[in-house]
Design a protein that fits this description.
There is one protein chain. With 423 residues, the chain is α/β, with parallel strands linked by helices. The chain folds into 4 domains: 79 residues, Barwin-like endoglucanases, CATH 2.40.40.20; 70 residues, Vcp-like ATPase, Chain A, domain 2 (Roll); 167 residues, 3-Layer(aba) Sandwich (Rossmann fold), CATH 3.40.50.300; 75 residues, Helicase, Ruva Protein, domain 3. Helix content is 35%, strand content 24%. The chain has 14 helices and 20 strands. Strand 14 and strand 15 form a beta hairpin. It starts with a strand and ends in an 8-residue tail after the last helix. The C terminus is likely disordered.
């Protein structure tokens, strides 16, 4: 049976429980169902059946992520009459755990290959690499848990203010599903980075050599940093955040040393994405120092031509970037524009996923926020949530209503400068 994907109420997020709204007596609350689309498979338990015939299925963002679907997509659903106990499950995790600890998290879970199991309260993500037997299986006490060594694919490289770049054992907690709109940007980043890592054999067979640099440009607040982190998550790659302004403010020779150190760290922890925030700070045209640093960047990028390392730069001022970086084969420029009406609605849905705002109200919110960026919409949602809690003296009964969002939008628009243009 095909059903249209919708979001779940806040209380079901992270629980692998779903709501089916369909006039089909085959499904009952408590059933486990197989859900699939285009080769992607997951499984979940039905929390509630509504037989009003709207043919929808409510999935949280984690289940949607396992299927690579978004709200509004159609998926296939089938009741599972029998689920085989797993003999062996091979996993990897974003935090270091032994087999006993993994068993505590997974015992009783219904899992399948190439799915992520999320435990938001503990900040744990467990990736199911392989199962024996294959297919949808249940983890039980007798299941053997095999942990693949913690490798670079489950780490994030993060910048600190010290002279070195430290490695943490967290993966970016944001995926493309958490980025509202920007469908064309996601597509281009998927083709040029995600698939270049995950489908390298296809690229090699056809003879395509991925370009190693991506230049994201657009006004402040449109989501350049967010989508770069999401690309690292989608690629299962390390993420090195480089504040370019700090490279600029170093002593003579120190910037070049730091640049070399960044690429050494990336080589030690492939696959890796190096993200230069405000790259115009080091790549404007053209002082003697900037010629030196740009030339060094290009040399270092030549050295990673055959490695799973990519460089993403972000700038609000593309016209200031040294043309040497934008020549064919070096950096692909990709515009990250302000969100249109459809994208604004998607951004509101991302930020209000735990709140019962209906479809008509989402469309109203999108219409009322013309010319606002994703960052401004995020601020609106936070302000509205705070006001809702303040109104109820921070009671557990606090509830976000459309009136809080309308007032937050009004406040944001009243304080916004008249132009969103960037130069």
């Amino acid at each position: 049976m095909q059903l249209k994907v919708m979001d779940v109420p806040w209380n079901l997020i992270g629980g692998k429980e779903i709501i089916i709204n369909a006039d089909n007596k085959e499904f009952e609350a408590g059933n486990v169902v197989k859900i699939w689309k285009e080769g992607k498979i997951t499984a979940a338990k039905i929390n509630k059946i509504d037989q009003s015939g709207k043919n929808t299925i409510r999935l949280d963002k984690h289940l949607r992520g396992n299927l690579s679907v978004e709200i509004g997509d159609n998926v296939n659903v089938e009741k599972l009459d029998r689920i085989t106990d797993a003999e062996k499950v091979q996993v990897s995790s974003n935090v270091e755990m032994d087999e006993t600890k993994v068993k505590v998290f997974l015992n009783g879970s219904i899992v399948c290959e190439d799915n992520n199991e999320h435990f938001p309260k503990e900040g744990v993500v467990i990736h199911i690499s392989k199962t024996l037997p294959k297919g949808i299986v249940k983890v039980v006490q007798s299941t053997e848990i095999q942990i693949t060594p913690l490798n670079a694919r489950l780490k994030t490289v993060s910048h600190t203010d010290n002279k070195s770049f430290d490695i943490s054992t967290e993966i970016p907690n944001v995926s493309y599903i958490d980025v509202g709109g920007l469908d064309n940007v996601k597509r281009l980043l998927t083709e040029n980075i995600v698939y270049a890592m995950k489908k390298a054999d296809v690229y090699k067979k056809i003879g395509y050599r991925p370009i190693k640099g991506i230049m994201l440009y657009g006004p402040p607040g449109t989501g350049k940093t967010l989508i770069a982190k999401a690309t690292a998550f989608e690629s299962a790659a390390n993420f090195i955040f480089v504040p370019s302004s700090k490279l600029k403010n170093m002593y003579y020779g120190e910037s070049e040393r730091k640049m070399r150190e960044i690429f050494i760290k990336a080589k030690e922890h492939t696959p890796c994405i190096i993200f230069f925030d405000e790259i115009d700070a080091i790549a404007e045209e053209r002082t003697d120092w900037k010629i030196t640093i740009v030339n060094q960047l290009l040399v270092l990028m030549d050295e990673i031509a055959d490695m799973d390392i990519f460089v993403i730069g972000a700038t609000n001022m593309i016209h200031l970037i040294d043309h040497a970086l934008l020549r064919p084969g070096r950096f692909i420029p990709i515009e990250v524009p302000p969100p249109d009406k459809i994208a604004r609605e998607q951004i509101f849905r991302v930020h209000l996923t735990n709140n019962l705002i209906d479809d008509v109200e989402f469309k109203e919110l999108a219409s009322a926020t013309d010319n606002l960026t994703g960052a401004e919409i995020s601020a609106i949602c936070n302000r509205a949530k705070m006001e809702a809690m303040r109104e109820m003296d921070f009671s557990p009964e606090s509830k976000l209503e459309i009136k809080h969002l309308r007032e937050a939008i009004k406040n944001q628009i009243d304080k916004k400068p008249p132009s969103t243009m960037y130069v």
